[in-house]
Design brief:
Blueprint lengths: L2 H11 L14 H19 L13 H14 L13 H12 L11 H14 L5 H6 L4 H22 L17 E5 L5 H13 L1 H12 L6 E6 L6 E4 L4 E5 H14 L1
Parallel strand pairs: 1-2, 2-4
Antiparallel strand pairs: 3-4
Length: 259
């Protein structure tokens, strides 16, 4: 059984609001895409020049920044190895789902999911044509997305330039890598999520991609842990980007209710 299916089944076993039978109808790509999106949104939120916001008040700049990080690391590109997961396809599947949710059911506001979709379409309309069609983004809207993506690229290139890695580039003193920590948990549903993430190594792989391109200011850790609520936030004092297990569970539950 695929590790994603094991994680979904285990998480849903602890989600009383969602019938276990719904797990068979859940699209693994949507959950994979949610993890990819949440990873990059969390990183971008931690890099904002102002005080990073909690997930219930995310600024659009964090979403725009996530799109730039996705482009920088090549996550949305087709995998060279046919056996590798197509993260771009999964991300599009997630955004097509998240953008159409009721605001009360969505861990991420639907308008922010639409904004991320627009940024990706603006970067490469052909690669994300199916997503654009699903969200009914016509030629005029796609042009607006391209203009917005170009402005975002200029802004975030300036923001990230001092921290870029590469020949002839020296990141500032104190800059360092992103580490990933999947913390021990107590709740049964959260344990399935934590164990699934440990086994599939997705966040470690995404961190490796990011670290190959950037040395983050002062270095920092992505901490996946129990929080008591479906949250994600940056703790600047501890240099921790916290992604709550309950937030991942909320995406699984949202898809379970929609099947």
């Amino acid at each position: 059984m695929h590790v994603w299916r094991i994680m979904i089944l285990g998480a849903m076993a602890g989600l009383a609001a969602v019938p276990r039978s719904a797990a068979a109808e859940i699209d693994d790509d949507v959950i994979l895409g949610a993890l990819v999106a949440e990873f990059h949104i969390g990183i971008a939120n931690s890099l904002l020049p102002e005080t990073p916001a909690p997930t219930d008040a995310l600024p659009e700049d964090a979403i725009v920044g996530a799109a730039q990080l996705l482009a920088l690391t090549g996550v949305v590109e087709k995998p060279q190895n046919p056996g590798d997961a197509d993260l771009g396809k999964a991300l599009d599947a997630f955004l097509a789902f998240a953008a159409t949710l009721d605001k009360k059911e969505a861990p991420l506001a639907p308008k922010l999911a639409k904004l991320l979709a627009c940024q990706l379409i603006g970067q490469d309309a052909e690669a994300h044509a199916a997503l654009g069609a699903t969200l009914k983004i016509d030629v005029k809207a796609a042009k607006a997305c391209a203009d917005a993506a170009a402005r975002a690229e200029a802004q975030w290139n300036g923001r990230l330039a001092p921290y870029r890695r590469g020949p002839g580039l020296t990141p500032p003193e104190g800059a360092g890598p992103l580490y990933v920590e999947i913390a021990p948990v107590i709740d049964e549903a959260n344990e399935a999520i934590a164990e699934g993430l440990r086994q599939n190594g997705l966040f470690d792989s995404l961190a490796d991609r990011l670290n190959a391109e950037l040395a983050l200011p002062y270095g920092r850790m992505l901490l996946v842990t129990e929080c008591g609520g479906p949250n994600s936030f940056f703790n600047p004092d501890r240099r921790e980007i916290v992604l709550c297990d309950e937030r991942i569970a909320a995406w699984i539950a949202a898809q379970g209710k929609g099947t």
